[in-house]
Amino acid sequence: MIRLIYPILVSFLSTLLCSCASPWQTISTGTSLQVDHERVFLISPDTTFSCGFYPSGNDTNAFYFSVWFTHASDRAVVWTANPHFLVNGHRSRISLNKEGNLVLTDVDGSTTWESNTSWGKHTTAALLDSGNLVIKTSTDKIIWQSFDSPTHTLLPSQHLTRNNRLVSQSDYHVLYFDNDNVLRLLYNGPDITSIYWPSPDYNAIQNGRTRFNSTKVAVLDHEGNFLSSDGFKMIASDLGLGIQRRITIDYDGNFRMYSLNASNGNWTITGAAIQQMCYVHGLCGRNGICEYSLHLRCTCPPGYKMADPENWNKGCKPTFSIECGQPHEDFTFVKIPHGDFYGFDLTSNESISFKECMQICMKSCMCMSFTYKNGEGLCYTKNLLFNGQVYPYFPGDSYFKLPKISLTPKDDGISCRPKESKVMLVFANAYIKNPDNISWSYFYIFAAILGAVELLFIMTGWYVLFKAHNIPKSMEEGYKMITSQFRRFTYHELVEATGKFKEEVGKGGNGIVYRGILGDKKVVAVKKLTDVRKGEEEFWAEVTLIGKINHMNLVRMYGFCSEGHHRLLVYEFVENESLDKYLFYDSNTERLLSWSQRFQIALGAARGLAYLHHECLEWIVHCDVKPENILLTRDFQAKIADFGLSKLSKRDSSNFNFTYMRGTTGYMAPEWVLNLPIDAKVDVYSYGVVLLEIVTGSRVSSGVTVGEEVMDLMQISSGVSIGEEEMDLMQISSGTTVGREEMGLVQFVQAVKQMLTSGANLGIVDARLKGHFNHEQATTMLKIAVSCLDERSKRPTMDQITKDLMVYNDEDFHPAYF
């Protein structure tokens, strides 16, 4: 009898102790805990983690069974047994039953979750210092662990594999390994499913990933490195040991790395996968438009209103209806500048005019809007509008198809923000704060009056400047052009936009570039000329030049500032920095450009220069082509920047007159040093050097400044014999003594020629690519580079170079890329 009672008594006492005493580090079979005032079930030996009943924030009588950080101020949850099911705050229970199965039961005794282990009564459960909740045998063999079934958080040493995934608390965003072995973020919403990271517009190699791995594993180590088998890497900004960290896919669909401040228990974001939150799909719902500068903001387009004032995920709904058969004249289009809706194209067309694109949408009763890219003539009509966003560097605009009658809002108006009487609308190139009862026609009248006043002000200022102060004619022409195309900023505006010139993003010989945010939330690059005396000429050169060009591979300028001695230029912000940051890095594998990216950058730069040389109303020679002046967009498309050293020439002129040498040593053509006439071929020479550096991933341009091969190169390129005077001139211009020891560019070019002639293996291609490149493209690029460095009369034009590269342009997947 005593033998029968004893085990029952032990089980009862263990249950009592677990319920009433301090949390346990280990519990054995037959132990249970009833939810009561949020009691803790287990605690890790070092007390970092706790496990037990965690209250729902919405209901004080509902609980999850979870693991959380004990000392974090927000008690951040890292794992939950069943995130989709809450248990009652009365008599719900967690138990390690006699079969060794961890079971969560609700108030009515129903099982809401279990570990599905059946090892027997000799099992124990424990919470490890790593945050891993485990069930072990008597020999300490782990037969179940929470690390194998993560919810929204990954802890150091916990593996994300092909068999599990992270899901945000909204249940709409998933981090997982796809069938091609690439780590991806998926939006799995109520209406659509779509991948949004890495960019779905590109294949794996273009996104800097590799598909050729069979492990499918990602892990966060204890130093703060998050590493994935497909090549993705995130490094904590506070890299080092001794810091509690976690990777969490947040409610908004981004996954971030967090570090815990041990002194105050607060979390700091030390890494994030997505920098521009509007790239996350589903944030603003169907028809909604996402904008992001300092913070994320959702809006509804004209003719639409918020579907649920409390939930942006449900998007916007139209306040009108479109029926097939309605006359075309009943409709109009409203422009959303730099707007786009990703996916769900009804049709796509290339090389067509804007009018043709509009007509395609007008004639289709299914078409709700279209996106048009001017520079490329690309037209995409849309029948479903998801994943809308506006960002200033998108090279196109979105146009909404609306019945003309809908442009006069009714009493229920467009509501883009809950509980606000006034709303913000994107309409005809501007944001307009609009009370619901005001007719749209008033805005046109107001805009016309404002425009007239502004024009009068500008023309008056122009007259005063030029007639009263005798401004030089070159500057006068610049002002004439600006008055019709650019905004003139005050110095105070740009001081505020840049936070008193706080964030420096680039530096050159003629100025420093800062990141700024204008009043309309547009992100810009503000270039502040450092040498005012010399900068005056460069300032007007850039203002006059950039206002006359418009090309997808050239940086756009939005405006300028000229006050006292202050000279500033305001450009579009190109977020991925300059090419040199990716070609000449040391060990940061995140900056390794894939071969496909390199080829597209080379092609984009060639297109931009070809436009300057051949398509502008006046010929434009850049004069300083180098990797530092080739900026890269989010999609790693090339944009040529810095026209401060440019020179214009009428089409009937064969060369330019310069008062001093221009450019960067190492990229300057020989004719600069030899004082020969300058033409567009100086850019071709510089492009050739850049092309070699794109292929090799190293600074081959350094050979121009040292070694006796500089002299040889000048003789080969120009056919001119160089004597002591020319050598002195070279030393003066470069600031470097020309020696006779190091191998220079000429020897390298000769080696490339020999390699191409003999058909030898392309061993000079960047070794970091590990042979993953297209052989035909690499051969073509090297041949072009060599021809660019030839005698000036034999160099090709940028137009011909673009055509030669286009023959091998293949943006689709091709095995040779790997």
TrEMBL record:
It is a single-pass type I membrane protein. It is found in: Membrane. One of its GO terms (biological process) is response to other organism. InterPro entries: Bulb-type_lectin_dom (IPR001480), Bulb-type_lectin_dom_sf (IPR036426), Kinase-like_dom_sf (IPR011009), Pan_app (IPR003609), Prot_kinase_dom (IPR000719), Protein_kinase_ATP_BS (IPR017441), S_locus_glycoprot_dom (IPR000858), Ser/Thr_kinase_AS (IPR008271). The keyword Nucleotide-binding applies. Keywords: ATP-binding, Disulfide bond, EGF-like domain, Glycoprotein, Kinase, Membrane, Nucleotide-binding, Receptor, Serine/threonine-protein kinase, Signal, Transferase, Transmembrane, Transmembrane helix. The keyword Magnesium does not apply. This is Receptor-like serine/threonine-protein kinase.
